[in-house]
Amino acid sequence: MDVTSHLLLLFLSSLCCSCCFGAAPPNFVLLFADDLGFGDLGCYGHPTSLTPNLDRLAAGGLRFTDFYCTSPVCSPSRASLLTGRYQTRSGIYPGVLYPGSIGGLPLNETTIAEVLKPQGYATAAVGKWHLGFGANGMFLPTKQGFDQYMGIPYSHDMGPCRNLTCFPPDVKCFGFCDIGVVTVPLMHNDVIKQQPVDFLDLEKTYSDFATNFITTSAKKNQPFFLYYPSHHTHYPQYAGPGAAGKSLRGPYGDALLEFDNTIGNLLTTLEKTGVINNTLVFFTSDNGPELMRMSRGGNAGPLKCGKGTTYDGGMREPAIAYWPGTIKPGVTHELASTLDILPTISALAGAKLPPVMLDGVDMTEILVQRGKSKRETMMFYPTDPSEMYGLFALRLGKYKAHYYTRGATHSGTTPDNDCSVFAVLKAHDPPLLFDLELDPSENYPLPLMGKPDLQALLERMKRVKQQFEASMVFGQSQVSKGIDHSLEPCCNPQCTPKPNCCQC
Q1: Distance between CA 28 and CA 349 in Å, rounded?
Q2: Catalytic residue numbers, as ranges
Q3: How far are the Cα atoms of 155, 188, 197 from residue 192, in angstroms, in the given order?
Q4: Which residue, 152, 429, 393, is CA-closest to 161?
Q5: In the 3-class helix/strand/coil scheme, how is 253-310 assigned residue by residue?
Q6: Quick count: other Cβ atoms within 10 Å of Cβ 284?
Q7: Angstrom distance (rounded) from CA 421 to CA 415
Q8: Which helix (H) or strand (E) holds 4?
Q9: Which DSSP helix (H) or strand (E) runs through 112?
Q10: Which of 244, 263, 262, 264 is nearest to 254 (CA)?
Q11: Mapping DSSP to helix (H, G, I), strand (E, B) and coil, where does residue 470 land?
Q12: Helix, strand or coil for residue 193?
């Protein structure tokens, strides 16, 4: 190829790139629901959920049928989303972090926000953090690459809620939340603005903060990354006057509608500021539904079990990618994961990947070309991963093998006995093998006798499992560092007796 031809090829490539991704760096809005099941959205088949804005995203974007988180509980799932690495590497296990947890997401882990900052991005987080608070707020989002933060630093049930109002005019929160800890704080950056939080006004606070961030960034012509991990639809559900009583699905449906309303506000702001055609909006959830809450706990649709388990109901999530003019409407059955969001955003922004072992892959080809996924496998760790047991399950292509199964308290009350906490740990040798295209409910293990093709498949999966586990270096457990109640965020830190005096 002569020099002229080479330069022409480079020019055409740059034009193509500009057409696909816009001349300016793209913006990113990452929406993360809480305890939302595969079957909870209208666009995923729920008959009474009212989610017009998420349905709009699905109709105008790409809807995933085979998208996975990495853990069936909150903190580890969030760590993987933001770092592109399994939670076992960062040490966010076993279980979740609490208000007084000593540990948190290690500061040497690189988040999506930290990937984007060198590219000149404005970054903000709004909502549920749940990756640690720590001494002097050392694990807050503002210490992890986010310019701004507005939210509750952990789950909103991690504080006494029995006397709080969840629905107007004065409907108290249903059930019990944690007791013996401080009331739930609302923080702006590292300052407590309200304690206890006002649930009726919380979503408006989040919506105003997020829309102002988008508007300000757009006026400055600065690319932005907005991370919105919602508290909806985690228990206890709540909703302000704009959504309370407005759905057909009771308190859960009202909470989901309120979340959807905020998404509508964000879309309207993107349109008004003229940046919607240069913004990737990505929606998914942290783990499956908390079935123990029955009608207040969400729905896994056709999938087996829910939160706390390594069945698909605990870890396969609704996911939607929306980018007008770049992502064509449709449905993809390609395998993908929250792990893949960091590498994808990095590629689209032209940013450098962190110099560490990543478990995610770039999804750009799926999003833009409706192409094949670079991901062949998905690994399933329990809530308490260990090197002794390793993976509980592995998906390769359309097949999933269970090496261990166990129920969970979170998935109790269902008719399926495999989901309950009384379904104790059970090893499977040979593993239970399912074809998830034929049997997404994981009800019918494939018979192996007289099936040499399936025997060969299991051998291949065994090799993949061994190779992966050999590459896994478990980080120091941050959860196991324990709890120091003096670390619980309090707007009057010197007050006594804690926790009752922490009100402002």
Answers
A1: 9
A2: 74, 130
A3: 16, 6, 10
A4: 152
A5: HHHHHHHHHHHHHHHHHHHHCCCHHHEEEEEEECCCCCHHHHHHCCCCCCCCCCCCCC
A6: 24
A7: 13
A8: helix 3-21
A9: helix 112-116
A10: 244
A11: helix
A12: strand
CB within 8 A of 62, min separation 6: which ones?
320, 321, 322, 327, 328, 329, 330, 331, 332, 366, 367, 370
The residue among 76, 124, 71 whose CA lies nearest residue 104 is: 76
pLDDT tens-place string over residues 294-336: 999 999 999 999 999 999 999 999 999 999 999 999 999 999 9
Q: Find, among 220, 216, 275, the residue nearest to 29 by Cα.
A: 275
Q: How far apart are CA 381 and CA 163, in angstroms?
A: 37
Please give the model's pTM, rounded to 2 decimal places: 0.94
Q: Write the single-letter amino acid at 45.
A: G
Question: Among 83, 26, 60, which residue's Cα sits nearest to residue 320?
Answer: 60
The type of residue at 354 is: P
Dihedral in degrees, nearest 10, Cα atoms 82, 84, 90, 92: 60
Given the structure tokens 């944690």, which residue do they identify?
A: 178
Which of 202, 207, 234 shows the shortest CA–CA distance to 36?
A: 234
Which pLDDT tens digit goes with each residue over 201-247?
999 999 999 999 999 999 999 999 999 999 999 999 999 999 999 99
Which of 482, 485, 401 is closest to 95 using CA atoms?
A: 482
Question: Is the Cα torsion angle 127, 303, 255, 406 positive or negative in sign?
Answer: negative
Amino acid at 316: R
